[in-house]
Fold this sequence. Notes:
With 471 residues, the protein is α/β, with parallel strands linked by helices.
Amino acid sequence: MYNPKSSKAEEFISHEEILATLEYADKNKTNAKLIDEILEKAKLRKGLNHREASVLLACEIKDKNDEIFALAEQFKKDFYGNRIVLFAPLYLSNYCVNGCRYCPYHAKNKEMPRKKLSQEEVREQVIALQDMGHKRLAIEAGEDPVNNPIEYILDCIKTIYSIKHKNGAIRRVNVNIAATTVENYKKLADAGIGTYILFQETYNKQSYEYLHPTGPKHNYCYHTEAMDRAMEGGIDDVGLGVLFGLESYKYEFAGLLMHAEHLEARFGVGPHTISFPRLKHAADIDPKAFLHGIDDDIFAKIIACTRISTPYTGMIISTRESQACRERVIHYGISQISGGSRTSVGGYEKEERPHDSEQFDVSDQRSLDEVVRWLMQMDYIPSFCTACYRAGRTGDRFMDLCKKMQILNCCHPNALLTLKEFLVDYASPETKKVGEALIAREINRVKSEKVKSLTADYLSKIEKGERDFRF
Ligand code: SAM
């Protein structure tokens, strides 16, 4: 009954197939011959299926695990170079009618001050984000058909795109809102959103129903089939993720890859991104009350195995994780991170971090300027680029480019151009100094002489005040 092409959740995420996969992986966790064969297949850079990937995740042979991490690092370099794209979440509303047991926005939490940004407040938040240097946002909202109807989300998107403060602009709005109808996804596509992000939370139906006891989110199939509806509604780029800590990570990993395989089988294009949130402390949520927490070693291995199993998928890590954790996993395949984030509604224009309405505690509390400098000190190029989506390179067109490893030819100079904008408009003197040295080094790595000289020309124009160049 497992069928990756099916449009039914319980057929493309088959519980029986996951159990059989876990059994197979466990049986082969010390099978060096099979693990070698899978690693050889991985080296072809065409990805691995959920069974193969699950064997690698279960692998208990030290040398082979070292090889997995080395390969993940190599893939990251080959497909994404040393760029890391930056974004920030923007919390629009914490009104929510659901009863999710892990989320402090759950409807029964009467202590949580409920807030929904007015369009004027959205404007203030966006100006604060632009003044930090952000160009790409992920908007977040609880599910509440009365307080946060789709019209409200659409109004917010319109407001966000309309604000041009000083040299600032939000050039890509990704959207993380509850599962909705094809009709609503069409409206989001028409509003020019980037990626539609929806975390599955858990792929295990029984746990899912327990963890979402009340509200529309209780419906496992409706939630799991949301990405299909999003794609039917014309959204090219969708972002998957599970909330690690809710269920056994091996189960979730197999489910995640099956979901990616399903999108590829049904729509010819896999997920644009996969996010890696881990359950964190929040208002009335204690992560210790959940039995499936994972440590940093397992977390790193999940990230490395995902990198080599889905080489073309962007991978995201948020400020839920500490600087130390981010520093470790970034090398194994992360391509996007958030920086300077506030997870409370209206948190950006305040000096002090408001804690009472946060969705989860932020571990990495550094400013965007500090995050940018830190990345550069590790030899990464912080990128504020949004060119692909604005040039229509989304969905299968983006994947084609990525598969041909062409992304490096335009993404690398684009990263330098958007970093230059950040340095000129927003960076501290110290960050600017590190950044200018990095750009001077990195421009020599642009292969085509024509692109190199154009990049140099654009960089000097940015210095003189012009903005928004891209390849
Ligand atoms: N309400 C929307 C929905 O139903 O999908 C999505 C927006 S919600 C603001 C974003 C994500 O935060 C959730 O999908 C969940 O995975 C994550 N989250 C909730 N509680 C969390 C916690 N205590 N720690 C870490 N992440 C959490």
